Amino acid sequence: MSHETLISALYVFALAAFLGYQVISRVPPLLHTPLMSATNAISGISLVGSIVTAGARYNTVSTILGFVAVVCSTTNVVGGFVITDRMLRMFKRKEIAKKD
Amino acid sequence: MQTYFIELSYLLASIFFILGLKGMSHPETAKRGMHLAEFGMLMAIVGTLMHHEIVTYTWILAGLAVGSVVGLAMGVWVPMTAMPQRTALSHAFGAFAAALVGISEFYREGGHLPTITMSALGFEVMLGALTTTGSLLAFAKLQGLVRGTPMTYKGQNIFNMALLAVTIGIFVYLVIFPGSMPLFFTMVGLAFIFGLLLVMPIGSADMPVVMSLLNSYAGLASAATGFVLSNKVLIIAGTLDGFSGFILSILMCRAMNRSMTNVLFGAFGSVTSGAASGELQGSMREVGLEDIATQLAYANKVVFVPGYGLATAQAQHVVRELADVLEKRGVTVKYGIHPVAGRMPGHMNVLLAEANVPYSALYELEQINPEFPSTDVAVVIGANDVVNPDARDNPGSPIAGMPILEVDRSKSVVVLKRGQGKGFSGLENPLFFKPVTGMLYGDAKDTLTRLVQAVQHA
Questions:
Q1: pTM above 0.95, yes or no
Q2: At a CB cut-off of 8 Å and minimum separation 6, what does B105 contact?
Q3: Across the interface, which of B218, B251, B354 has its CB nearest the CB of A90?
Q4: Catalytic position from the list B385, B393, B408, B443
Q5: Beta-carbon-side half-sphere exposure of residue B196 (alpha carbons within 13 Å)
Q6: Using the beta-carbon criterion (under 8 Å), do B74 and A56 form an inter-chain contact?
Q7: Closest of A5, A53, A46, A84 to residue B350, by C-alpha
Q8: How far apart are CA B106 and CA A49, in angstroms?
Q9: Domain span holding position B243
Q10: Would an 8 Å CB–CB cutoff place A99 in contact with chain B?
Q11: A55: which chain B residues are within 8 Å (Cβ-Cβ)?
Q12: Is the Cβ pair B353, A74 closer than 8 Å?
């Protein structure tokens, strides 16, 4: 990694941290559990790193580690989003909740 | 061209992730937000599959298939009560994936990495490893595979600190003099062990804080992976996750009026309460079911205060039934939710939402506290420390200063409790001895079911 890449990466990190703080502070306690499972699913984006490791055929060890990493991150992405959706569907407004 | 396409898919994914989390500010917009985030994820994955370094798709597709099946099964079958365990497990998976990618990168380069990359990789692998084992232990505690009580021994903190110092020492050495495989794997091993040691002394009741903290570490491990791979979408998503966890852990600490250090190194649950239970006047007054039913039936406003005991008794649905019966009689029903009710942030809200309680009836601590003086009956179900007036009145109490739901200000309080025992902290609760308070012993679900019938006949 060159110094320029590092600097631009640090920019991205700092701005994302700032943005994250602004966005997350607005989430009401009501939705903290779905928030946690959503951010969890989103950070399953490390899947993109795992995919390259699993498919690049650097060496056997990397391929195996990459494969396991793909399994773990995919579980997070799929499980995280499915369960977040499931939870969010439970939060109903008054009129709708009464009908069920 | 290809590179541009991939980078563009990452950029769009980042934007969709941020919009997705922005949607989380309200239940009505949250669903759409999540669909955006899902779409972003799909784009990032499709983009990655075009990466020029990929030569074989066998393992990728196999991994995606296995992961999707496991993830889908977990997503569909896990009950809402087990949400904390599932979340702990997914922190472990996420962190493990980050650690593995880091190890693989190190191995590929034979350990000879430039200083900057090695620093990021060290963070990635250490955070990933300790979060993996820490989350697995948290999972085991929440699932009841391991006892939830804090495990402590003499010199624990010193030992842990020493171990951490050695791990970081190796890390620094590797950054300056890269290339030693054995040292690298020692560092990884120590980080794995440190994760266990970190969560060992923490009791079940402090889990909301630990969960949030592990969430934060898992996110930061992903962000560090982004630094290693120079991948900006990883940095952005990891940082968002890291900060979200960090903010939640601060909120949880504030809700218990304790510092992070105290939660992590204080081993709270083991503290005996010799200090300040004080002289309690009066005795607990047991009340009859019929009396309570009449009180509830003729009240104007009733506030339910659920704690973790409600979830263990699986009584969420019966509470809603009782609320329905009361509302039919014209009683206003609200729910007061303490931030640390349950085993992870916001857990109680999800449990009640699952039982079809409309979210407009769920009130946060600051919203509901001013309402207690005008409340006719406050019904405390399986909650103890979060309604302990000592936290407000007795500066000598171990939980002094912790924000509580001030149920003792209502005209009448009913406490549904399993038995006469104390809460997780082992503290006496003066609320139970107050003249306004009536105790109703027994299994919460059973008691509530009988209350529903009694109110219908009142």
A1: no
A2: A53, B113, B121, B228, B229
A3: B354
A4: B385
A5: 6
A6: no
A7: A84
A8: 14
A9: 91-267
A10: no
A11: 51, 53-57, 59-60
A12: no
Compare all CA atoms of chain B with the CA of A21 and give the residue at the minimum distance. Answer: B243
- Domain-embedded: residue B262: yes
Residue B234 at interface with chain A, using a CB cutoff of 8 Å: yes
Point out the residue among B59, B245, B354 whose CB comes nearest to the CB of A55: B59
Domain containing B353 — which CATH number?
3.40.50.1220
Q: Which of B57, B101, B232 sits opposite A46 (nearest CB)?
A: B101
Q: B293 and B252, same structural domain?
A: no
Q: How far apart are CA B175 and CA B4, in angstroms?
A: 32
Three-point CA angle B274, B279, B283, nearest 5°: 115
Give the total number of structural domains in chain B.
Answer: 3
Q: Do B350 and A90 touch (CB under 8 A)?
A: yes
> Quick check: is B324 catalytic?
no
For residues B61 and B130, state if they share a domain: no
Residue B74 maps to a domain: no
- Radius of gyration of the CA atoms of chain B, in A: 25
Q: For each of chain B's 458 residues, which pLDDT tens digit applies?
A: 788 889 999 999 999 999 999 999 999 999 999 999 999 999 999 999 988 888 889 999 999 999 999 999 999 999 998 999 999 999 999 999 999 999 999 998 888 888 889 999 999 999 999 999 999 999 999 888 888 788 888 888 889 899 999 999 999 999 998 888 899 999 999 999 999 999 988 887 788 888 899 999 999 999 999 999 989 999 999 999 999 999 999 999 888 888 877 777 765 444 444 444 455 666 788 888 888 999 999 999 999 999 888 888 889 999 999 999 999 999 999 999 999 888 888 999 999 999 999 999 999 999 999 999 999 999 999 888 889 998 888 888 888 889 999 999 999 999 998 877 665 566 788 898 888 899 988 888 999 999 999 998 87
Pair B214, B329 in one domain: no
Give the Cα separation of B333 and A53 in Å (integer).
Answer: 55
Query: Which residue type, as a one-letter code, is found at position B132?
Result: T
Cβ within 8 Å of B, A 44-73: 44-59, 61-63, 65-73
Q: In Å, how far is B307's CA from the nearest CA of chain A?
A: 15
B112 belongs to a structural domain: yes
